[in-house]
Amino acid sequence: MDAQALSLNNTIEKLNSNVLNMLSERGKNIFFPKLGILAQSAQAKGKTINATIGEAVEDDGTSMHLPEFDALVNMPTANIFPYAPSFGKPELRTLWKESIYHKNPSLKDTVISNPIATNGLTHGLSMSGYMFANDGDTILLSNHYWENYNLIFENSYGAKVSTFELFKSGGFNLADFSKKLNEVEGEKIITPLNFPNNPAGYTPLTAEIKSIVAEIKKVADTGKKVIVIIDDAYFGLVYEDNVFTESIFVELANLSENVLAVKLDGPTKEDYVWGFRVGFMTYAIKGGTTELYEALENKTAGAIRGNISNISQLSQSLLHKIYSAPTYEDSKKKKYAILKNRYTILRDEISKTKYAEYFSPLPFNSGYFMCVEPKKGLVAEEIRKHLLEKYSTGIIVLGNVIRLAFSAVPQDKIPELVENIYKACIDLDK
Ligand SMILES: Cc1ncc(COP(=O)(O)O)c(C=O)c1O
């Protein structure tokens, strides 16, 4: 093992040996190189002649670039063209950390790591797999999960996906979550929790969140090491009362020295910048110190450097700029209102009694999506094909469940969307 990785492991072991045991073999071996090219480049910064960096520089010291870009982006070249640090742009990391506290006031003064920039949440999920999942480890997910989790955890890291039933009697199925949590073999449990959920569009109610956290605490108290990967992709898009509006991160960040909370979040869905590819990965554990977090940040940035090097400088700079704009909060509220309106129309429409003959909605209260289950033995995939052919309507089918992205449908088309599904069901029921 490299001496730099060993030194990080020693620090982690000294501060909380449970965290060392949570790391995968890859996680144990990785480090962010402090020596070598990066260290030598850092030492040469500001010197009269600097022949260290792997970028091209104009004679006046600015980034070499093609002039066609000038009219397109109104920012200093240093915020557009150079590589960003593997940890992310420092000023954006600082702003994002502040925003985590702002959006999650229950965190109060809990010490959390600095967020590390990832290439969207997908990459954060992948880096979580890198850091914590060994071949054969179980990844406990709800039965309604984003299909990419398989590619990330199973195909890339050789882990095994196991599921609990998300719903029972119109709410979170605590009994099955607890059962499956306790059935995970070995010393370590890795469980990604995604609220608002894709595909179901469900966020647990405040009381349910407390029960979920209590179950995690119980299993951690038996000595198991629990890594909760919190996929907050749709954070903030909650449309009903009594639903938990903060991230479950706030309840886990200071829960137990056996529970590591790994928060994945970012502007992708929250700020409507899907193609920017910026996300963040932030750690918290009871008793966590800056020194412990720096060791984890170093390892994570090392994994990022060895994977994709760093995240888009341009995207990070654009985000930093808009987060400082005085109109930002207001603009965001307006977009939220549009989505909430679509949600409300769909919720009211789909609950009309005539539809209950052919399909029923799964619980939903947040996010971009909701799901319906066909009845009378109808097959979701046949409904989907029929909708495309006869009603010019596209939906997603997952198993025998239909997912509707109300985030993508104008409000005046939402009644028609539901009516089309109904008509397709009637056609197929003949
Ligand atoms: C639950 C969930 N997590 C993560 C992502 C990916 O986010 P990003 O585009 O930031 O990689 C998605 C995107 O669909 C998602 O639904």
Short key terms for the protein model shown above:
430 residues, alpha/beta, 16 helices, globular, binds pyridoxal-5'-phosphate
Can you offer a commentary on this structure?
- This protein has 16 helices and 13 strands.
- Helix 1 (3-15) runs antiparallel to helix 12, helix 6 runs parallel beside helix 7 (148-156) and helix 15 packs across helix 16.
- Strand 12 and strand 13 (401-405) form a beta hairpin.
- Helices cover 42% and strands 14% of the residues.
- By secondary structure, the chain is of the alpha/beta class.
- The protein binds pyridoxal-5'-phosphate.
- Residues 120-122, 146, 194, 198, 231, 233, 266, 268, 274, 279 line the site of pyridoxal-5'-phosphate (PLP).
What is the overall pLDDT average?
Answer: 97
Describe the sheet with the most strands: 5 strands, mixed
From the spread of the alpha carbons, the general shape counts as globular
Radius of gyration: 23 Å
Strand order, main sheet: write it out: 1-9-8-7-6
Bound molecules: pyridoxal-5'-phosphate
